[in-house]
Design brief:
Helix content is 34%, strand content 25%. It has 14 helices and 15 strands. The chain has helices at 66-70, 76-82, 86-102, 115-125, 141-146, 161-169, 186-191, 205-214, 222-227, 235-239, 258-269, 273-280, 282-288, 319-325; strands at residues 2-9, 14-23, 26-32, 39-43, 45-51, 105-112, 132-137, 149-152, 173-178, 196-199, 218-220, 244-246, 249-250, 303-307, 332-336. The protein has a 9-stranded parallel β-sheet, sandwiched between helices. Helix 3 (86-102) packs across helix 4. It is globular, with a radius of gyration of 19 Å. 50% of the residues are buried.
Length: 337
Amino acid sequence: MNVEGTILVGSDFEPVAGRVVVEDGEITAIEETDTGSDSIVLPAFVNAHTHIGDSIAKEAGGGLSLDELVAPPDGLKHRLLRSTDRKTKVDAMSRTLQLMESTGTASFLEFREGGVDGVEMLREALVRREIEPVILGRETEAAMEAGDGFGASGARDGDFDQLRNATRRAGKLFGIHAGERDASDIHPALDLDPDFLVHLVHAKPLHLERIEDSGTPAIVCPRSNLVTNVGVPPVRELTERTTVALGTDNVMTNSPSMFREMEFAAKLTDLPASTILRMATLNGAKIAGLNCGVIEEGRDAKLLVLDGDSDNLSYAKDIVRAVVRRAGHADIKRVHL
């Protein structure tokens, strides 16, 4: 299979006219040539932090605080999940997965509530889907073993030492929320030597120094933080110190669209477009240990093809900036997962 157009090549997303040669799902060559195609070819997205179980309750709880919305065990989200039947929960997640695929997401890192049963429900929802999950179970060691790792709610919510050790022994990912409500749980989270931290809205210089020294990656979800009124993370400062990826967080409060997340993050921070696109693709793949997120030989051919001659993208002078700040679902020609 060949995919032709202006290809955003490598980790800097250099625009190159040509074709991507794909064999058995792998990029085997990038050929520079004038193909006459108006397409823009970029790596498909990696959504680095999701909670898709609450797809049953989109836009519920407007005006509630973060704790009232999602704090375990009795936040609105958890009460609604307990009162909803299994079939409905699986169907709602399946619909969200279909939306994520159609908007160019190749993989996602899911903090999966509900123990082992929650992991199994997500696997049911993934039947006939091409999107690749990284499922981080919650609540129990068994949920971690059933998934790809453990996603901790936050150091303030309990002692995670045993679960951290079990996850390490299993050779799986351990991620934890930190600094979402305030800064008090950032150091305790770092003490667990996690594979990544999520949110870091309230990270201060001392935290940033420790993150840099430890090399701990960060996942930020600025739209979600704004909705829950906790503030916005110091994204620019984090990118200067560690690997930073973008996530869309709860489907309850945000569409799982990486286009929307990129545009918001770009306009919030004014970081270079290539930095934001890397946060939406390669960096999430690095954190999850995936072989995608960049167009290079030997990488998985998970690609997103946009119409560079759409009414939205035509006459763009800076293609990468246009992709990050204005592209959307309507500009998609094809998604190769």
